[in-house]
Amino acid sequence: MEWFVEESNGYGLMIKVKKKLYEHKGLQYIEIYETEFGKMLVLDGRIQLIEKFESSYHEMLVHVPMLTHPKPRKVLIIGGGDGGTAREVLKHEPDEIVMVEIDRNVVDACRKFIGVDKGALKDPHLTLLIEDGIEYVRSCKEKFDVLIVDGTDPSPASKSLFSEEFYSACARISDICSMQSQSPILQKREFQLILANTSPFAKRRVYLSYIPMYPGGMWSFLLAGDNLDASIDEIKKRFEEREIETEYYTPLLHLAAFTLPKWLEKIVNEYIK
Question: Which of 52, 74, 92 lies at the terminal end of a domain, its last residue?
Fold first, then answer.
């Protein structure tokens, strides 16, 4: 057996791999491995998912905004080529999902070698568009109940998804938006960039999840939009009425995720008043 090592900002993560299942160098460098924790997707040297741990990412990215909204019928996903986000959105039985992914090779490889989408990428309610997310939102004339940004770390393929222009367009076309916002411990600069550039949204709140496959384990998300004030009773009721089944997410965890450590609160309060 060999080890896959991801290094970033003085920190390293080692995963024992059984074998490499796929490799492709195109718009992004795609690698897929078989590990003791299931299949692992790596893009440009950064771990994107490991099957055993992916629920703590996808479920928190999706169910927090979807249950904050009283009736999410129309959903836009930017990124999310592995299909995990689409899988979780479909649990809410929306009328329509539009998914905009820049790299067709990621979609095809994940469907063939990983399968965490569990058929979501072929669901009739989902329309898959292969194009740049910023170009799509820039020219979009439609309005979405929920918009979910499931992107990678900043890279040549995704750096436009961290711009103020992108977030401004997202705010214009959605009621509620969620996005992953990097590690506030080991990627503080990227985290602060997102806080600074998401100012076009009327309201913003940071929340956390524990994701062992990402740098430091503590991972942040941003919930943004016009109305983020759903009570715990409303969230519990929606969760039960929609009959959502999860591995990680619960309504109580939803509430707890917004309780931040004091040091992190101080950083957030510099950008969100």
Answer: 52
Asked whether 106 and 30 are in contact (CB, 8 A), the reply is: yes
Helix axes 164-173, 188-197, angle to 10 degrees: 50
Does an H or E element contain 135, and which?
A: helix 133-139
Same domain, 90 and 66: yes
Residue 61 shares a structural domain with residue 165: yes
Q: Of 150, 153, 226, 233, which residue is the catalytic one?
A: 150
Q: Is 150 a catalytic residue?
A: yes
Residue 264 CB burial class (10 angstroms; 0-12, 13-18, ≥19):
middle
Tens digit of pLDDT at every position of the chain (273 positions): 699 999 877 888 899 999 999 999 999 999 999 999 999 999 999 999 999 999 999 999 999 999 999 999 999 999 999 999 999 999 999 999 999 999 999 999 999 999 999 999 999 999 999 999 999 999 999 999 999 999 877 766 667 788 999 999 999 999 999 999 999 999 999 999 999 999 999 999 999 999 998 988 999 999 999 999 999 999 999 999 999 999 999 999 999 999 999 999 999 999 998
How many domains in the chain?
2
> Do 113 and 226 have their domain in common?
yes
